[in-house]
């Protein structure tokens, strides 16, 4: 029995930290969209209830650098000093073998790099907060960040919001249900294209 040809598609969600991209991606997966979450690799330690192989592949700094040396990543970057994030090639292949599209929840520059890597196989969606003030409120509401980290993330968010024009689509997340519905419609259209 021969294997059916695969539609190797990728859906890329990027946003400044705290914009709601992870919440949107999880909602779409719960609604049964034909895609599977790409688990990113990182050098950082788990936060809160995060689990290795579920939320991220927690590799540590040395383990991450080893993956870079082995050319095992599609893209990677140092988001903060000694805090690396990237996409393992093996993770993408694992998902495509299931016949699903791979969905990425990555930082803005990772999203741009993934779109460049996948080209027409990818739909890149930028999730924008309604304002920097609202973003600050959301970050503080998480209760997981120090004051210093919040200030760093807000400074980075201003720069990242300028990159929204580099994406195929931009969704302002001022109402979560509306943002989820817009993302779902965009993905359905993209997935229907052969």
Keyword list:
single chain, five-stranded parallel β-sheet, alpha/beta, Rossmann fold, 194 residues
Compute the number of helices: 7
Strand content: 15-25%
Spans where pLDDT lies below 50 across 5 or more residues: 1-5
Q: What does the oligomeric state look like here? A: single chain
Overall number of structural domains:
1
Mean pLDDT: 88
Number of strands: 9
CATH topology: Rossmann fold
Sheet with the most strands: spatial strand order: 2-7-1-8-9
The CATH H-level superfamily is P-loop containing nucleotide triphosphate hydrolases
Helix content estimate: 40-55%
Order of secondary-structure elements: EHEEEHEEHEHEHHEH
What best-fitting shape do the alpha-carbon axes yield? globular
Please give the largest β-sheet: 5 strands, parallel
How far is the N terminus from the C terminus? 23 Å
């Amino acid at each position: 029995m021969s294997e059916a040809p695969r539609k190797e598609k990728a859906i890329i969600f990027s946003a400044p930290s705290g914009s709601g991209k992870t919440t949107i991606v999880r909602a779409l997966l719960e609604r049964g969209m034909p895609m599977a979450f790409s688990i990113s690799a990182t050098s950082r330690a788990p936060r809160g209830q995060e689990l290795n192989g579920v939320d991220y592949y927690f590799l540590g700094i040395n383990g991450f650098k080893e993956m870079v040396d082995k050319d095992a990543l599609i893209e990677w970057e140092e988001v903060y000093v000694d805090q690396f994030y990237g996409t393992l090639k093996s993770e993408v292949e694992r998902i495509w073998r299931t016949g699903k599209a791979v969905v990425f929840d990555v930082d803005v520059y990772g999203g741009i790099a993934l779109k460049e890597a996948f080209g027409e196989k990818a739909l890149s969606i930028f999730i924008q907060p309604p304002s920097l003030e609202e973003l600050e409120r959301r970050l503080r509401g998480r209760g997981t960040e120090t004051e210093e980290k919040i200030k760093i993330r807000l400074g980075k968010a201003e720069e990242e919001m300028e990159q929204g024009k580099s994406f195929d689509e931009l969704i302002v997340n001022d109402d979560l249900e509306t943002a989820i519905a817009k993302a779902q419609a965009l993905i359905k259209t993209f997935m229907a294209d052969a």
